[in-house]
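Hey,
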Amino acid sequence: MGRTKKKLKGLKEGKFRAHPKGFGFVEVGEEEEIHIASEYTNTALNGDTVLVKIIDSGDTKRREGKIIKIKQRQITNVVGTFTHNRSFGFVVPDDKKIGTDIFVSKKHTKGAKTNQKVVVEITQYPSKGKNAEGEVIEILGYKDEAGVDMLSLIKEHNLPYEFPKYVLEEAKQIREEVEKKDIPHRVDLRDNIIFTIDGEDAKDLDDAICVEKLKNGNYKLGVHIADVSYYVKEDSKLDKEAYIRGTSVYMLDRVIPMLPPKLSNGICSLNAGKDRFTLSVDMEINKKGHVVSAQIYKAVINVTQRMTYTDVNKIIQNSDEAVVKKYKKYVKYFKLMEELARILQKRRLEQGSLDLDIPESKITLDEEGKAIAVGKYEQTFANTIIEQFMLTANETIAEKFYWLEAPFVYRIHEVPDADKIAELNKFLFNFGYKIKGKKDSIHPKAFSQVLEEIKGTPEETVISTLILRTLKVARYDNQNQGHFGIASKYYCHFTSPIRRYPDLFIHRMISKYLETKYDMPVEQKEKYHAISLKVADQASEREKLAQKAERDSVDMKKAEFMQDKIGQEYEGIISSVTAFGVFVELENTVEGLIRFENLGEKEYFNYDDVHKILIGEHSNKVYKIGDKIHIRVIEANKELRKVAFERVE
């Protein structure tokens, strides 16, 4: 026993993050990562928990290591393309980070045929000189069949595509209409004029709003959120499944919901003309955009009109006579919403909230699920109205429950690392900008001032993207640490309980406080404080996974869209410079890599990490972020989710 302890002394434990080229990194804690050369991976696969020995500490920036032991295997099932040989088969994984083909004996192929996508369960992990072995457990279909690409992605990320029968059975017991006996215990707002504003395709409508002008000149903003916790009881089968899922996942042509459609699109969704239970907050907001008072309560509402962002935008811009005429009796309400949203937006920007104007991709699929158009998603001021109202509600709820010292889940966004800010400033210096402030006290305003200065300039997108990369990733925590990105001291997610578990947990806490008249017993507080930590950690992990799956689905469809564009030429902008080439983004948001050999000059390029530029060794030709460049498409690989370009003179 003693010998084992001595042997493992000085080793570090962490998660192995593999690179398709064979090397990788071991993440130790939040800050440290150790580089592992391909000869030292010891057959570890992406995601494995490993013990690593430091073999070179010379470079403080990046330590070198050697994997000594694999403590826990992460991957059990792999999605890939099956190839059939006479006496056996093998699966080439979709995820190139796995780094090993999987051998499948003839009796374990399940009848899979060449070029079919399959799920294979690993029965024997790779050892030196020997591939992994596995057994086909599911055949998804031929790789070119409609929908198989998305299904493969869902299986690759191990997303819970279907609900267990016992969860659906429990959902089936819930009535499709509100319980009449519970209406008298709520504030009855069914005669009030209340709207939902969402995208055309939205089915899970969490939030409804109403705005009125008070006699004192202030505004009254009512935000009504679906009372999901009324239906999803604590520790029920529905609740446990929602906790496991953590969030709904939106993958272009499909949604993997957190709650069964019976709830998410039915009784919990604030559908127009239907009585619905809500958890509501009324806020009195002054002319400077400050919330001067707020009231939280349970209500029953009946949404007057379901609106879309497109129509509301046409109304406030007065750009479509037919739409304005159709909603004539409601026009004054939308004008008032616009008025209040502009006040809230102005206050927020003055506080230093970061207005990162990075365009989102909009991908159009045909009936077979094939990408037929890729472009920028147009944000309208109608989107901003909802964004400002939801931000305000989330801040109001977070601040109130912070001062109550309630068990809670906050949405936090920490201050960026000083080293990363210094790196960013080296780059910004080339353009004449700087993030100002002391090393230990950077304010969001320092970032927002630069974002304001670059508006409308050629370098706007590039600098916005680099600022985004400098910022930390927002996450959930049961301790309030503020939100740097929106320059807010208190923030939470309260407004989407149909699709996010932290919101559902917060609703549950609010309900407890309303029931106990804000005097929750100490033992209950202790119990829920412990639960809140688990909820925050689980939700943060599930959110990361959902975002990765959503990004992969977008990258896959962009590559698919570009497959028939090989040989075509476009103008693009250099979006990133690396030690192996430059990434170029086209006007339609598709991004592709130009490797050194495809930059047009037959020469070696030196990479200047400080200024993020490439310099030609002989020609002194410089490539930098923000440069316009003419390119030709030379590759579009849907399976690898990658696009490659070459420079055209």
